[in-house]
Structure formats: structure tokens, C-alpha cells
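Appendix B, example 12.
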Amino acid sequence: MSPKFFTLPPIEVSWPYILLNANRPNLGYVVKHRRNIKSVIIDSGIEIFRNPCIKDYSGGFKSQAHRLYLLYRRVKNVLPSAEIYVTVPDYCDDYNPCSLWLSDKVTNIERTVESIMYATEKYSDVEWLIPIQGHWRKPKTLVKCLNMLREHGFEFEKHDYYAVANLCVEVDMSVLRHSVLYVWGWFREKLGYVPRLHVFGPKIRALPFIKNYIYSFDSMAWTRPVNSKLHSRFPFSAKTEEQRILFFKEYVRYLREKRIIEDET
């Protein structure tokens, strides 16, 4: 089965798999297309850490988990029949390596594990997407995150959706592929099965190498031209709503042409 592509399309385009930004959720899109939406992923708001001066969520991960819970309830009210998953507030290392480490012993991995344990216990009625974090360009550290969760008594069988969460800005195909394979392999070895795996923001050229190991991925990269023909007409990025629609349709056409996603999505 081909992976599902999660994104937030132009407002006039209907799409079944929606990615909502925790800090700027476009609930207008959800309301407009509520009859056609099958599944939603609410991100954790992690993009705030692109700013190297920001070291934590406002009020910490507990406050962010509560905000996400409230957003989850709002979306659920609009889409009572859709799958809605919320990403546990996590701490990345790829935007600004080591920036979110509190010490050599309390890195972004330890902080993410603490957040996962808190969110899944405090808000057990939420369908959580569990982020597996690692250190920048060190794929094996994703295994450290998984082992640490196991040591803390995390009940893996209660959750069916996990995310490889350290690859949003990764350009090295080897790092990206090995990151996915380490997580896939850990589940296969330790649990005897592989749950649904998501990848946050992989580069489009990496998808052929990982598509057979993942359930889904997300991207907002369609706002930039996906081919030279589009770039020659509208260099760099879509500037108008008409261009956004064109760029999105071309991006989806490319994914289907390369057999990364199926036509029926």
C-alpha cells in the first residue's frame, strides 16, 4: 500500500489527509471540507524551535499538551467520524543542533520522552501520534529514544501511530533512509510487528527510498515548484491563490506519476 500524504492544500482544493499547524490551525478549511476529510494530524507546534532563542513551548510541554488537547476537541466536534491524531509536544535537534539540550544527560531525547509519558497518561482519551526523536544526523539515537520509552514503562501496544521526527530539514538521503529503517527494525524485533509509521517533512527525492516502510508522510513543500517547467513560469514559490492551486496539483501529479501515492488518495 502506498503511503498517505498529509498536508494543508489551498482552501478551494479538497484533500482527505490534512495536516494542521498547532499554532495557526486553519479550522476554516476543516469546516469547508468536513465531508471529504478522512484523517487529520495536528502537529505539536515544533516549528517555534526554528528560532534558536526559543528553548521551550510557552509554559512548557505540559501547557502545550493542554492546548493541543483543547484543539483536538474542537477538531473532533467538526469531524466526529474522522481519524484525528495529535503529535505529542516533542523537542527536535535538527533545526539548531544541541540548542534544546539542557545538559549532556538531558538532551532533546530525554525531554521528548518525558513529554510523551506525561501527555499519554494525562490525556489518555486523545489519539496521540508518538514522535520518536533523535540527535542531529545520528540515526541510531532514535533507537535510544525507543529504548528509553520502554524503560519508562511506555505501553507501546496502546498506541498505533508513531513518527520518525528528526528529519524535517535533512538533505542526506542515507541519514533519512537509515533513520526510518532503524525505527522500523526496532519495532519488528522488539514488538514482533511494525505499527503505522509517519515521517515529518521528508524531502521529495527521499520518498522512493522509504515509501515501502511508512504509512504516511507530510509536507508543505508543494508551495515551491516541483519541476523545472513550473519553475520557469513561476520561480521560487507560489505568489497568488491561483498559483497555489496550480503548484499543489502539480505536486500531487508528480507524487502519483512516481507511484509514491495512489490515485485514489
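The longest helix spans residues 60-78. Residues 226-265 form one domain.
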